[in-house]
C-alpha cells in the first residue's frame, strides 16, 4: 500500500526519472538491528513522517541507528535526509509550519514526549552543521558556553578541564591552546569545523548528528575530520548526512539511502556499495540518476 | 535482478565501459579462433597454421595488457561503485582467464607441430569433439558476459562436467593405446597433454561463468562445481 | 568535447559586439553616471556647508559678552541700608544705583534726565548683580572702590560687535549718535571688555538678551531625552524581540505589525495632542515638565526603534541560532546570549535615528506646554522646562537684535549636542559590533 503510494509520488513529481521499471523489493526495509545480539539500537524510528504545511517531505521512515557506530545517510538533493536528521534532535521544532509524526526513541525514551525537555534532549544529541558556525566569541567561550548553561562545571578549573578535553578530543588542542582568548571566527575553515565538533562534544552528548560537515572544506581538512569521526566512534554514536558517496563509504559502518522522502535501503556500508539490493540505490550510487 | 540499467549521467563513463566490453569480446573471439585453428592444425597436420597460431597468441597477451591499463584507469578516475565496480573487477579476472585459454591453445598448436612429424594416430579424432564442447562453453559464457545473463552463465557453468567426462574417456583411450604399443607412448603423451589443455580451457571458461554470475548478482555461485575429472582419484584397478 | 560541434552551424553562434563605438559609448555613459553622482553629492555638501557657515557666522559672536570695566565705589549707604554688614542687609542694597554712579563719574557732563537715562541704558539691568555677589562674598569691600566688569546692555553689546549700522538714520536705530559718542570714548579709554559668555550656558531664558542663556533649554532637553530613551529603548527592544522571536505567526501579530509600521509615519503633533489630552488632561501631570515631554517623545520613537530592532534581529544569520539550539540552549538563552548581542549595532542605529528625531522635535512638545517662558534651570523631571528647538524658536520670534545671534548660537549648541549624542551611540555600537 505504501509501495503504491510511492510509485505514484515518483511519477507525479519526478516523472522524468525512469528507472527501467525494475521490480522493487519492499523499499521500507525493516532493519533487523533491534533483534541483534549484543548492542541494542541507540535510536529507533518508526513510521516517521514530516510535513511542511500541506507538503509531505518524509514518508514512513523506519530506521534503527546502532550504538557507537557511524551511520551514513545518502541520497540526492531534496530526498529528505537532512530533514530526517533534524528530526532526531527536534531541530525541526524551530521551523514554523513543520509537523513531525511517528515515533522516535532514544534508548527507548520517546523524544517527542511532551514531558521531555527539549533542551536536555539537545544536550544528549549534539549537532554539527554544514557551514562551520562558531559563535562570535572567543575559542574558550565557544566551548564553554554549553557546559555553562547546563551547569556542568562548578568552578573555573572544572570548566578549563572540560574545554581542554573537548579540544583534545577534537584534535584542535595543540593549535588552539595558545589562542583560547581569540575569536573562534579567526580560525581556518577546517579548524572552525573542528571547533564546532569540540563544542558539540563539550556537553558530553551520546549521539552526534553531522549534516554534511565537510562540504565546505578542502580535501585535507576533510580527511582530518574523517579521521576524527573514526576516533569519536569509540565513544559516541554518529549519524552523518553526506553528499559524497566516497565519504559515506570511507567513514560509515551502516548506510541508509533516501530517495524522494522514502528510506529505500539500509544496510552494511560494504553491502550497499558493492551489491545494493534496490535498483534505485544502484542507480544513485553508480551515478545513473541524481 | 539486473535489468538493462539506464545510462550514466556522465556519458563518457558508459563509453569507457562499452570499450572494456568490446576488448573482452575481442579477446574472447580471438581465443575461440585460436582454439579452433589449433585443433584444426592438429587434425589436418598443418604446421603452417600451427605456427600462425603460436605467433598470434601475442595478440591476446597485448589485449590483456590493454584491459589491465583500462581497468586501472577506470578505478582511479571513475571510482566505480556497486555494479560498475564489479564490472571492472570482472573484466580484469575474465581477461586473465581468456589469456590462459589462449596460452593453452598455443600449447596445443605447438604440440600439433610435433605430432605432425609422427604418423597419424586414431585417438586424434576424439580431440575435436572435446574442443567443440569447450568452444561452446567459451562462446556461451562470453555471450553471457556481454548480455550480463547470470542464468546463461550458470547453465554453461554446469556443462564443464561434460568436458571433464570426455577428458576421462580420452585419458583411458590414451592409456590403452600406450599399453598396446610402446612406440605410441611419445605421441600419445602429447595427445594427453593436449586433452588436458582442453580440459583446463573448460575450467577457465567456467571460471568466467562464475565471474559473470558474481558480476550480475554480487555474490558467488553457491553450488559446488560438479567435478567430473576422476583422473586424480585413485583408480580402483 | 569538440568545438567543431559549436562552430560549424553558421548563424547559431552569437559573439558579443566588440566594436569601438560601443565601447566608447559605454565609457561615456559611465563617466556621465559618475558625474551625476558627484554633482548630487556636491549639491548636498554645498547646501550643508552654506547652512553651517551662515549659522556659525551669525552665531559665534554670541559666545562673547561685552562688559564695561568700571571703578565702582561701593557706597555703604546705598549698599548696606541697615548698616550691619550682614547678608540680610547687604542683600537689600541698591547695587544698580552704585554702578550707575560709577558710570556717570566717567561722564561728568551728562546732566539732564534724558541724557542720564540714555547713559543708564548702557548698563544691563542686572549689572548690579555682579557687584552684589562680590559684596556678599566679601563684606569688607563695602566702602572701597573696586574695578568690576559689569554686564553691558544688549544694544551696547550689538554696537561693540559691530552689528549696528552707523550709517542708518538715527530715528531707525536703537542707539543714538550721542550714545555712540559716549561709547567711542569708553572704548578709547579701554573700558569696553569682551569676555567669554559663560552665562550663555548657565542661565535660563530672559527678556533681556544679554542675560538670556541656553542653559535652561539644554538641561530641559537633556532631561527630556534621557526620560525618552530610558522609557522607549527597553520597551522597544523587548517588544521587537517578542514580535520577532516569540509571537505566533497569526492575524493578530500581523495587525500589530502593520500598526507599528504606520505609527512611525504619524505626524508628531498627533502625539502632542495625545500627550495633552491623556497625560495632562486625564493624569494631571505637570505641564511642560520633561517627564511629560519624555513620555510623548518616547511614544514617538517606539515605532522607529521597534522597526530597526526587528530588522537587526532578522539579519542575524540562522546559523548562529541553530548552533546555539544545537548546544542545548533554550529559546530565551538563544535570543539573549546570541541574537541580541549580534543585533546590537542595528538596535543602536535605530536608537540614534529615533532620538535624533526626538531631539529636534518641537511640535509635540509645544502641545504639552514646553513653550512657556522658563527662567530657571530645571532640576527635576517634574519641573517645568523647555527644550532647545523650542527655545530657538522663541528667540527667533523676538524683536531684539541681540536675539538673532543667540538664535544662531542656540542652533550651534543644539547641533553640537546632537553630534555628541550620536557619537556616544556610535561608540556603544562599536563596542557591540562583532564580525561573524
CATH topology of chain B, anyone? Methane Monooxygenase Hydroxylase, Chain G, domain 1
Overall helicity of chain C? 55-70%
Q: How many strand units of chain B?
A: 0
The amount of beta strand of chain C, in percent, is 5-15%
Q: What is the highest CATH level, the class of the largest domain in chain C?
A: Mainly Alpha
Strand content of chain B: under 5%
Task: Please supply descriptive tags for the structure shown above.
heterotrimer; A: 290 residues; alpha/beta; Rossmann fold; 6-stranded mixed sheet; 10 strands; globular; disordered N terminus; B: 237 residues; mainly alpha; Methane Monooxygenase Hydroxylase, Chain G, domain 1; 79% helix; 0% strand
3D architecture notes:
Chain A is of the alpha/beta class and 290 residues long. Chain A has a domain at 26-132 and 208-285: 3-Layer(aba) Sandwich (Rossmann fold), CATH 3.40.50. Chain A is built from eleven helices and ten strands. In chain A, the strands form two sheets. Chain A has a six-stranded mixed beta sheet, sandwiched between helices. In chain A, strand 1 (41-52) and strand 2 form a beta hairpin. The two termini of chain A are 26 Å apart. Chain B has 237 residues and is mostly helical. Chain B has helices at 11-44, 47-78, 82-117, 126-147, 150-180, 185-217. In chain B, helix 2 (47-78) runs antiparallel to helix 3 and helix 4 (126-147) packs parallel to helix 6 (185-217). Chain B starts with 10 loop residues before the first helix and ends in a 20-residue tail after the last helix. With 436 residues, chain C is mainly alpha-helical. Chain C folds into two domains: 62-211, no CATH class; 215-432, MetI-like (MetI-like fold, Orthogonal Bundle), CATH 1.10.3720. Chain C has 19 helices and three strands. In chain C, helix 14 (290-315) packs across helix 16 and helix 15 packs antiparallel against helix 16. The longest helix of chain C has 40 residues, at 20-59. In chain C, 37% of the residues are buried. Chain A binds chain B through residues 18-23, 245-246, 249, 273-276, 279, 281-283, 285-290, and chain B through 1, 3-10, 13, 79-86, 217-219.
